[in-house]
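Morning. Coffee machine broken again, so started the prediction first thing and wrote up yesterday's gels while waiting. Chain of 836 residues, entered below exactly as on the submission form.
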Amino acid sequence: MAPTVPSPAKSASPSQPSGKSEVTDLKQQLRQLAGSRAPDADDQRRDVFKRVISCMTAGIDVSAAFGEMVLCSATSDVVLKKMCYLYVGVHARNHPDLALLTINFLQRDCRDQDPTIRGLALRSLCSLRVPNLVEYLVAPLATGLKDPSAYVRMIAAVGAAKLYHIAATSCLDAELPAALKALMLSDPDAQVSFHSTNNDEIVLQLSSTHYLCIYLNCLICNCRIKEFSEWAQCLVLELASKFLPSDNNEIFDIMNLLEDRLQHANGAVVLATIKVFLHLTMSMTDVHQQVYERIKAPLLTLVGAGSPEQSYSVLCHLHLLVMRAPMLFSSDYKRFYCQFSDPSYVKKLKLEMLTAIANESNTYEIVTELCEYAGNVDVPIARESIRAVGKIALQQYDVNAIVDRLLQFLEMDRDYVTAETLVLVKDLLRKYPQWSHDCIAVVGNISSKNIQEPKGKAALIWMLGEYSQDMHDAPYILESLVENWEEEHSPEVRLHLLTAVMKCFFKRPPETQMALGATLAAGLSDTHQDVHDRALFYYRLLQYDPAVAERVVNPPKQAVSVFADTQSSEIKDRIFDEFNSLSVVYQKPSYMFTDKEHRGPFEYSEDLSNLTVGAETSEKVISAQRYQENDNDLLLSTSDKEDIGTAASNGSASTYNAPSDLIGPSLLSSQTPSETSLINPGGPTYSSQSNFSLDDLLGLGVPEAPAAPPAPALTLNSKPVLDPGTFQKKWGQLALSLSQECSLSPQGAASLMNPQSLIRHMQSNYIQCIASGGQPPNYKFFFYAQKDGATAFFLVECIVNTASAKAQVKIKADDGTAAEAFSALFQSALSNFGLS
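Came back before lunch.
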C-alpha cells in the first residue's frame, strides 16, 4: 500500500487575514523578497503586496511592515509601485514618524525614466500632507511643473494646490504661482492648462486681473476651451462669469467667441454659458434683452431632450427667466403645453410658466388648453390648472370669457373642481365686483351639502355673507349651516360662518336675528380658541354699539388691485445671482437651505436622541411650526391649522393665541373665566348708547349661571426624589395629560445662552431637571415635580426655541385632575425666567 502523501498547508486567504501572526509572516516574506533578483520575484512581491493591502483594508494594523514595504519598492513594476504608494499614503498620515522613511525612494522615483512612475511618485509625495516634510516637496514640484510629460505636469499642478493648503508661505517662496501662470497661458496640453486654472486659491487670489484677462482671452480666443472636457468647460465658464471686462468691446468679443457653446449637447455647458452672457450684460439693458432672445432657443431645445429630470432642471432655469421677462416668451407659449408623458413636477412648472406669459394675444389659447387639464385624472394637476385660469383672470386678460369658463366648472360633478372654482370666484369678486350679479346667479344654485372641502365651503359662505342682499335664500342657507355647527370640524369654516352671519344680519336683520344668536352662542362654547375669541369679540362689539359693529364687520370695500406675491423681489434677485446652481431648482437662495436656522421648523440634532424618554404616537406630537395668520376682511385663514389637527373634544384643548388684532387690551382685561356669564343680560354694559335689548335681539334668554368655585391651590414638594429609571418607566406608562405652547420673555430667551440658568430657576420653584441637552437655538429639558403630601408626580418635556422665544410643553401626571393646576404653575415659572 502506497504511503499517504501529506497535503500542503493551505495559505491564508487574502480576504480573510488572521491578525498578528499574518503580519509577522508578511514581514518575513517581504524581507526575503527585498533583495531577490529571481525571474519571478515581481510576481511573488505582487502576491505579498496584495495580502498586505487586504489586511490594511480589513482594519489590521500593518504599520510594522513599513520598512520592509519600502525596501521592496525598488522595482520598475508599475503595479507594485501603485500598491506601495497606496500603503505609504495611508500609514504616513497615521504615523508621521515613519513618513520620513519614504522620502528618499519617492524622490528617487520622481526622477524615474517612466513618466507614469514619476507622476505616481509625485502624487504620493504630495499626498503625505505632513507639515514637517514640506521642505521635501518644493523641489520635486518645481521640477514636475517643467516636466516634458503632460501627465507629470498635471500632477504637479494639482500638487501645488495641496502644498498651498499645507504651507502657503513655502509655496510662494518657491514661486510656484508664477509657474502655474505659465502653464495656464502657454502649456500645449489642455488638461494641464485646466488643472492649473482649477487651483482657484492660488490663481484667483494671487493673480492680478491682468493675468486673468490674458488667460481667458487665451482660452476663448484661441478656442482652447473646446479641447477641455465638459466638466472642465463648466469650471472655466464659471470663472469667466466672475470676470469684469474693461469695456463693452471686450464683452462682445467674449460673447461672440462663446456663442457656439450654446449649441453644446451637454446641458451643464449651455447653462454655464448662459450665466456668462447674463452676468456680462447685466448693466447693458438693451443687450441684456437681446441675450434673452438668443438663449431662448437653446433652452427650449434642452427641455425637449434628455430625461424628465434633466428637463425639469432646465425648466427651473427657464422658469426663472420667464418670471423676469414674460413678454419675451409669450410667443412660444405652445412649447409649455403639458405632454401626456410629462411627470407631475414638470407639468406643475409648465402651468406656472403658462400663467406668467399669458397676455392679450394668447390668453384665449392658453385658457382653452388649461380648461382641458381641469378634467385630468391627476387631481393635483387639475387643481393647478384651475388655479392657473384664475390667476390669468386676475391679470385682467379677457376676464369676461374666463369668468364664463370658471362658472362652467361649477357644473362639473367633481368636488375638488367645485371647491377650487369657488375659491377663485371669491377672489375674482374681490377684484371685479361688477361681475357679482352673474356669479351669484350661478353660485346660489350650489348646495353647501355637496361641498366637502373646507376651503370651498368657506368661499361659498363668504359669498353668502358678502352678497346676502342679492341672494334670496342666503339667510336660510346660513341658518341651516349654523344648525349643523357641531358637525363642522374645520375651524376655518366656523370662522367664516361667524362673520358671514354678522354681515347678513346688518343687511337683512329680521331674517337673521335668530341665526345670529345661535351662531354667537355656538361660537362662545366652541373649543377652538380662535373661534371662541371671534365670537366673544363680535358679542362685545354688538353689546357696545351695533352701529360701530357694522362699520367694523361690514365696512364699504374697495376692489383689490393687486394680490400679494408669495416671494419678494429681493429673494428672486438673489436666486438670479446664483444662476446655474441648486438655488434655481429649490427656488431659494443658498443661505436658506445651508444655514442651520433655515433648516425647517424645530428640527433637533442627533445629540438629543438620547433624551427621548418614551415613544409616543404621531397624533400626540404637536408641531412647533408657526403659522402666519392672514386677515382678509376680518376672516382669519386657519386652513393651515387644520393640517396639524383641531382641539381635542375631551376638554383637553390645544392652546392657540387669540387674534390680538381683533381683541383690544380693554376687552382682554375684562374677559371672565365663565363663558356662560358672557351672554348674561345682566352682565356689564360698555356704553349707554345701546338702544335696544340685546337679550331680546339675540334670543339668548339664558339665566345667570353660578360662578365656578375656585380651584384649590397646588403645593409642590420642595425636595422631590425620582431616579432616572423610574422617570423613564413612568414616562412610557402615563398618558399625555396636556400639550401646549408657552412663551418666554426676551430676557429669558437671552438667558438660555447658559441652559443651567433655567435649571436653577425651575429648582427655585420646586421643579427639578433630570436631563437636558441641545444646541442653539433649540434646547430640550425633562423636568419633574411632586405634589406636596402625596406620592403623585408630574413629568414634563420642555422643548425651547430661543429664536422664537417659544416652548413646547408636554405634561404627564399620576394625578390627571391636578395637571391643569401644575401647568399653570409651570407656565408661571417659565414666564418669569430671566425677569428677576
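The CA atoms of residues 73 and 822 lie 76 Å apart. Going to sketch it on the whiteboard this afternoon.
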